[in-house]
Design brief:
Radius of gyration: 21 Å
Number of strands: 12
CATH class of the largest domain: Alpha Beta
CATH superfamily of the largest domain: Tubulin/FtsZ, GTPase domain
CATH architecture of the largest domain: 3-Layer(aba) Sandwich
CATH topology of the largest domain: Rossmann fold
Distance between the termini: 39 Å
Bound molecules: guanosine-5'-triphosphate, magnesium ion
Shape: globular
Helix content: 40-55%
Structural class: alpha/beta
Largest sheet: 10 strands, mixed
Length: 434
């Protein structure tokens, strides 16, 4: 059995993590106390141990570590219906937040917490047979998820270098948050995400805000997280239920990451609805929505870039014949969005277990050069602040050297150029250019 440990860091990471566990407990038919429901005898259980540890008393416990520098969110999770399901050793809780300051999370406060976090992780590892990797949930705009998250990533890569590391990371939007230094925090994090992580599954509050205000009158984090958690449940379903494609973190990244640094994927979801739909969508409708820019959870228009590789996962009571037809048909109207120099770069899979809210649903994970649009926007905002060294003293007072910001900006610019390079590449290009 190859287990995965979920590390949720900071407020956003814990909120998203909480919704994720609610979703997958329901999908695995386990109640809030960790008991497998009696009517689940036909439910596939072969891979249940990937995300859940089974105890002698037949109770299932999430493989998770919950970390935050301030107690509010984790205390509310502990006090909720879900609170009892977690191992009591899996909480790492401080008393003051990192105050939206990456440097506090990474430099001044983080080091005193890192050993506690690694101890909690080691305890989770003791309960694994053969750990395949970690997935981190965090936001990039604050101080803990982004700063401490970055520190955690580099320590995990050092100590557990054989393991896979994925993150589910929420990019900031000024529509949703009014913290002015978010471009610093996100750019500083990005450098660590480039260097230490195998795959970053991006979510963008800008796109999520737009989706929520379209589908309902407001866009609370609860609603945004509902959509994010649906997407993560769909993305991870191939890791949790039987099937051939993407059956491990390594296989998922092998299909999606064609160049080591270009490992930032974006996802589209169908249906996107905050309530269960009245009508089940069929494969052609699901497929059409997955390629619609409105259904992307990252604010980048897929039509402006080219897809290096992609994976589509259909779920639930969809027709296998239609899935097969659809996968044979891909070379049709969307083919111009795919680079022609990677053959068969759209993989399709079917998971028969439906998602929590829908009888039929689908997710696509794209490694598309269009993601540079989000990075360009971040770079512009970062540049505005950094040109005048605005707010810099808050960071240098907390142990950050200005050079780190210079290097982080250079790293972001390099990433954008690399995406542009592969966007412009054609099958006929001289090999020496690569
Ligand atoms: N999608 C989503 N975004 C969130 C949520 N909570 C906060 N954010 C976003 O995350 C960023 C702020 O990060 P937080 O996660 O609150 O910060 P933190 O990691 O707890 O760090 P500090 O509080 O600064 O110590 C902003 O961009 C917010 O808009 C959430 O529940 N869902
Ligand atoms: Mg916080």
């Amino acid at each position: 059995m190859s287990e995965i440990i979920n590390l949720q860091v900071g407020r956003c990471g814990n909120n998203v993590g909480n919704s994720f566990w609610e979703n997958i407990l329901n999908e695995h038919q386990i109640d809030n106390c960790g008991t497998q429901l009696e009517n689940s005898s036909n439910h596939p259980k072969e891979r249940q141990n990937v995300f859940f540890q089974e105890h002698a008393n037949q109770k299932f416990m999430p493989r998770a570590v919950l970390i935050d520098f301030e107690p509010g969110i984790i205390d509310s999770i502990k006090g909720s219906l879900l609170g009892r399901i977690f191992d009591q050793n899996c909480f790492v809780i401080g008393q003051t937040s990192a105050g939206d300051n990456w440097a506090k999370g990474y430099h001044s406060e983080g080091p005193q917490w890192i050993e506690y976090a690694l101890d909690a992780i080691r305890k989770q590892i003791e309960a694994c047979d053969c750990l395949q990797g970690f997935q981190i949930m965090n936001s990039l705009g604050g101080g803990t998820g982004s700063g401490f998250g970055s520190l955690l990533m580099s320590r995990i890569r050092e100590e557990f270098s054989d393991c896979m590391l994925h993150t589910y990371s929420v990019f900031p939007s000024s529509q949703v948050s009014d913290v002015v230094v978010e471009p610093y925090n996100a750019t500083l994090s990005l450098r660590h995400l480039i260097e230490n992580v195998h795959q970053v599954l991006t979510f963008d509050n800008e796109a999520l805000y737009r989706i929520c205000t379209k589908t309902s009158s407001d866009s609370t984090y609860q609603k945004i997280n509902h959509i994010v958690a649906n997407a993560i449940a769909n993305i991870t379903c191939t890791l949790r239920f039987p099937g051939a494609l993407n059956s491990s973190m390594r296989k998922m990244s092998l299909n999606l990451v064609s160049f080591p640094r270009l490992h930032f994927t974006m996802s589209s979801l169908s249906p996107i609805s905050l309530r269960p739909t009245t009508r089940d969508l069929r494969v052609p409708e699901l497929y059409q929505q997955l390629f619609d820019a409105k259904n992307f959870l990252t604010d980048a228009d897929p039509r402006h870039g080219r897809v290096l590789s992609a994976v589509t996962i259909y779920r639930g009571k969809v027709s296998e014949k239609e899935v097969l037809e659809q996968s044979l048909n891909v070379g049709n109207k969307n083919s111009s969005y795919f680079v022609e120099w990677i053959p068969n770069n759209l993989k399709t899979s079917l998971c028969q277990v439906p998602s929590k809210d829908f009888n039929t649903s689908a997710v696509s994970i794209f490694n598309s050069t269009a993601i540079q649009e989000m990075f360009r926007r971040l770079g512009e905002k970062f540049g505005c602040l950094f040109k005048r060294r605005a707010f810099l003293h808050w960071y240098t007072e907390n142990g950050l050297d200005e050079q780190e910001l210079i290097e982080a900006e250079a790293s972001l610019k390099d990433l954008i150029s690399e995406y542009q390079f592969y966007q412009d590449a054609t099958a006929e290009d001289d090999e020496q250019n690569f």
